[in-house]
């Protein structure tokens, strides 16, 4: 059920087994995703106090970094206000953001931006596999297997029927239908005829005239059944042979995969450059803000792609867009903006080293992966619940009702979420975010602002006593 | 078996629960009105389990209200009515009731004795058959070829002797057993007390959650509804008696203009599809132009299925 979860859980970076020819080539994910975040670090050499040489080496490397600062890669993206999401269109940035930290999602793919690869594969340029294809292939194989099974059953039935019919035929009009058309058409050589008609060779010329109508019928059948040749010792065998012919006729129709290469007029016309990558990477606002604020690895441009948005106004923008319809002025922003709450949780789990991705497919806010979706299934499903525990929220009746409206969940909802996570073998984490009062939030210092929020996690598990017993 | 209790049925209201104590009422409501409730009482024979439960039957407020609105039942404040009823109960009423109980106990004792007697006779008959069969086998094994005549003459004799030996002690025992009456614990307080639907202890309509219109709507369509909290919804809708059918829908009610989180729709759709049921969302349609006097609310329902699984 959770098989669509990761790109390809069975892939590993281990040395492939000996019979490599049958198995598809697996990329070395451990190498591709060796950096957990799109950051380059430059560690200083170790400082050993009683070794004066080490001090010198540290000093030297300091100096080199001071004189020529190592280049820190900053990728660029732009904010699309129509879809209120952040798009990355640069090929290099897309690969970097996906490979280092699994940020974003391909706009035409399930998760990894693999449209171009699939497209090339489709028109027959490339051999490697994307996860969508693996799933598709598995489905096609299963369907084909089912068809095959149904066909076999049908054939078995048809065969027995034919055998019975042939047995009956054999007893009534032995072999006559066979010889006559051959003789008429002049296709057959005499020796073959001789073998065939060994039992009743003599009277055949005489009988043929008498049995004209049945002969004609048999001509048609024979022509259909046995177009290859007439080397068959008796009619019983003819039937068996014909079934094989039938099979060869309609097997190709069935086994053609859905992704046949499209008709290419001149096959060598396509090259690597002729296929334009029409896909871009979509970053969720939380991911984009984490990359901008938390890592400093991204610059977000505005709609017209003219100027980069400064971090504080980017936060304002995201907070405004977390409402629907989007709030225009920053005056309407509260401390419990949907964006603030979800970003706090995103930042929290990213800081703890998890790969955080959207959990919309399982109806939760986030999925937590240990190293990334290509390595293993997600272990935890996070549901975010705002919690209004500050005395500020109990001060007035209006705030009380607001708080209770925002944090009330029904029991059936909890059971529903919990059951779904149990179905897909995830552990449900309820993540409570303590909402600070709207008033004492500094709007200009993001670090201070985030410091006002507190995150508590709680694991919920459905415990069935009868099944949990040893 | 199809006894119809006197209508309206009193639903006992005890500590915020709507309870039914009469097995007749429970069976009648389930059979005729598609109200199942939840049995919450421990079975006295097997008390150390809670998979199978018995009386009393707890009704949800929705079920209680539906029954009251249909005029099948009324709700009675059990504690106070019981107290005052016992106080006002006359001496002769009391003794009459006790006498009745004793008679019923005697009847029960007699019934049980008869049943035992029948069982015993059956057992004896089986034993006699077995012995008979064995003797026949023994005779068949007799090496002498033509013993048929002998067997024929002997067989009836065997039968009669066994019959007589089996019957005589039974008949003698039956006359002996008519001893002490069984003690009967009455489960309801309404044979001794008077049931009056218009008494001062009858309660107003129960408070129901906002999902009640949807509940009533589905019930009127012939669905059996069971509480669905265990399964992550508000009600489970069964097409027939839950003992015979799997449920078809996980039902959740919503206000007409309520904001529904898309994540909730996803999770509910997944849940329903995962257990091969439809997720059904419904509520009262809010029509701006319809006047209030047209009291038939129009309920609209939508079902959801997760296509990707």
UniProtKB/TrEMBL annotation, chain A:
GO terms for molecular function: nucleic acid binding; tRNA-intron lyase activity. Residues 1-11 have a biased composition (Polar residues). Its EC number is 4.6.1.16. Residues 130-171 have a biased composition (Basic and acidic residues). GO terms for cellular component: cytoplasm; tRNA-intron endonuclease complex. GO terms for biological process: tRNA-type intron splice site recognition and cleavage. Residues 339-434 form the tRNA intron endonuclease catalytic domain. Residues 1-24, 121-188 are annotated as: Disordered. The active site is at residues 369, 377, 426. The keyword Lyase applies. Keywords: Lyase, tRNA processing. It is an enzyme of class 4 (lyase). It holds the Pfam family tRNA_int_endo. PANTHER family: TRNA-SPLICING ENDONUCLEASE SUBUNIT SEN2. Belongs to the tRNA-intron endonuclease family. Constitutes one of the two catalytic subunit of the tRNA-splicing endonuclease complex, a complex responsible for identification and cleavage of the splice sites in pre-tRNA. It cleaves pre-tRNA at the 5'- and 3'-splice sites to release the intron. The products are an intron and two tRNA half-molecules bearing 2',3'-cyclic phosphate and 5'-OH termini. There are no conserved sequences at the splice sites, but the intron is invariably located at the same site in the gene, placing the splice sites an invariant distance from the constant structural features of the tRNA body. This is tRNA-splicing endonuclease subunit Sen2. It comes from Elaphomyces granulatus.
UniProtKB/TrEMBL annotation, chain B:
Residues 211-289 form the tRNA intron endonuclease catalytic domain. GO terms for cellular component: tRNA-intron endonuclease complex. The keyword Magnesium does not apply. GO terms for biological process: tRNA-type intron splice site recognition and cleavage. The active site is at residues 238, 246, 277. GO terms for molecular function: nucleic acid binding; tRNA-intron lyase activity. Gene3D superfamilies: 3.40.1350.10. Its EC number is 4.6.1.16. Constitutes one of the two catalytic subunit of the tRNA-splicing endonuclease complex, a complex responsible for identification and cleavage of the splice sites in pre-tRNA. It cleaves pre-tRNA at the 5'- and 3'-splice sites to release the intron. The products are an intron and two tRNA half-molecules bearing 2',3'-cyclic phosphate and 5'-OH termini. There are no conserved sequences at the splice sites, but the intron is invariably located at the same site in the gene, placing the splice sites an invariant distance from the constant structural features of the tRNA body. This is tRNA-splicing endonuclease subunit Sen34.
């Amino acid at each position: 059920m959770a098989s669509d979860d990761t790109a390809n859980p069975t892939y590993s970076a281990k040395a492939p087994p000996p019979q490599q020819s049958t198995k598809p080539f697996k990329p070395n994910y451990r190498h591709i995703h060796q950096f957990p975040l799109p950051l380059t670090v430059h560690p200083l050499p170790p400082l050993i106090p009683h070794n004066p040489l080490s001090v010198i080496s540290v000093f030297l490397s300091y100096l080199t970094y001071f004189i020529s600062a190592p280049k820190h890669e900053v990728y660029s993206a732009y904010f699309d206000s129509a879809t209120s999401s952040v798009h990355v269109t640069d090929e290099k940035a897309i690969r970097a953001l996906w490979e280092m930290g699994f940020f974003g999602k391909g706009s035409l793919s399930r998760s990894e931006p693999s449209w171009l690869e699939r497209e090339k594969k489709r028109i027959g340029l490339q051999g490697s596999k994307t996860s969508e294809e693996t799933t598709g292939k598995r489905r096609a194989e299963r369907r084909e297997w089912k068809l095959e099974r149904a066909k076999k059953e049908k054939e078995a039935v048809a065969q027995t029927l034919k055998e019975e019919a042939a047995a009956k035929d054999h007893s009534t009009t032995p072999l006559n239908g066979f010889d006559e058309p051959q003789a008429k058409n002049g296709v057959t050589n005499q020796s073959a005829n001789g073998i065939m008609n060994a039992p009743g060779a003599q009277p055949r010329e005489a009988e043929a005239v008498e049995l004209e109508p049945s002969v004609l019928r048999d001509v048609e059948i024979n022509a259909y059944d046995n177009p290859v040749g007439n080397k068959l010792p008796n009619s019983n065998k003819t039937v068996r042979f014909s079934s094989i012919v039938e099979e060869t006729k309609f097997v190709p129709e069935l086994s053609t995969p859905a992704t046949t290469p499209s008709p290419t007029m001149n096959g060598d016309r396509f090259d690597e450059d002729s296929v334009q990558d029409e896909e871009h990477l979509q970053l969720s606002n939380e991911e984009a803000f984490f990359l901008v604020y938390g890592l400093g690895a991204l610059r977000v441009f505005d709609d017209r792609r003219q100027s980069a948005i400064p971090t504080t106004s980017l936060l304002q923008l995201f907070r405004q867009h977390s409402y629907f319809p989007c709030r225009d002025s920053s005056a309407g922003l509260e401390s419990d903006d949907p964006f603030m709450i979800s970003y706090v949780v995103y930042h929290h789990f990213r800081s703890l080293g998890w790969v955080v991705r959207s959990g919309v497919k399982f109806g939760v806010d986030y999925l937590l992966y240990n190293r990334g979706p290509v390595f293993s299934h997600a272990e935890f499903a996070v549901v975010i619940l705002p919690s209004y525990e500050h005395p500020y929220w109990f001060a007035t009746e209006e705030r009380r009702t607001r708080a209770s409206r925002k944090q009330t969940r029904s029991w059936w909802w909890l059971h529903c979420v919990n059951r779904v996570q149990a179905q897909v073998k995830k552990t449900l984490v309820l993540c409570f975010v303590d909402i600070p009062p709207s008033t004492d939030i500094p709007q200009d210092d993001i670090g201070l602002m985030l410091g006002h929020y507190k995150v508590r996690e709680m694991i919920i598990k459905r415990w069935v006593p009868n099944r949990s017993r040893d | 078996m199809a006894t119809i209790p006197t209508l309206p049925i009193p639903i006992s209201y005890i500590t915020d629960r709507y309870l039914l104590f009469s097995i007749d009422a429970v069976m009648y409501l389930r059979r005729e009105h598609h109200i199942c409730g939840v049995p919450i009482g421990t079975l006295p024979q097997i008390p150390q389990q809670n998979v199978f439960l018995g009386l009393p039957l707890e009704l949800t407020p929705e079920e209680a209200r539906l029954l009251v609105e249909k005029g099948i039942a009324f709700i009675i404040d059990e504690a106070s009515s019981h107290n005052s009823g016992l106080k006002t109960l006359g001496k002769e009423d009391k003794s009459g009731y006790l006498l009745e109980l004793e008679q019923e106990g005697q009847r029960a004792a007699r019934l049980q004795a008869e049943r035992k007697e029948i069982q015993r006779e059956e057992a004896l008959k089986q034993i006699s058959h077995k012995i008979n069969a064995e003797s026949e086998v023994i005779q068949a094994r007799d090496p002498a070829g033509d013993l048929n005549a002998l067997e024929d003459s002997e067989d009836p004799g065997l039968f009669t002797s066994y019959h007589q030996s089996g019957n005589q002690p039974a008949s003698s025992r039956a006359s002996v057993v008519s001893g002490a009456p069984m003690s009967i614990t009455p489960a309801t307080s309404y044979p001794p007390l008077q049931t009056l639907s218009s008494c001062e202890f009858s309660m107003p309509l129960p408070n129901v959650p906002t999902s009640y219109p949807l509940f009533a709507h589905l019930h009127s369509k012939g669905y059996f509804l069971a509480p669905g909290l265990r399964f992550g919804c508000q009600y489970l809708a069964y097409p027939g008696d839950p003992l015979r059918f799997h449920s078809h829908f996980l039902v959740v009610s919503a206000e007409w203009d309520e904001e529904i989180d898309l994540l909730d729709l996803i999770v509910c759709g997944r849940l329903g599809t995962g257990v091969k049921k439809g997720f059904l969302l419904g509520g009262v349609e809010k029509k701006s132009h319809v006047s209030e006097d047209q009291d038939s609310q129009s309920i609209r329902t939508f079902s959801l299925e997760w296509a990707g699984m």
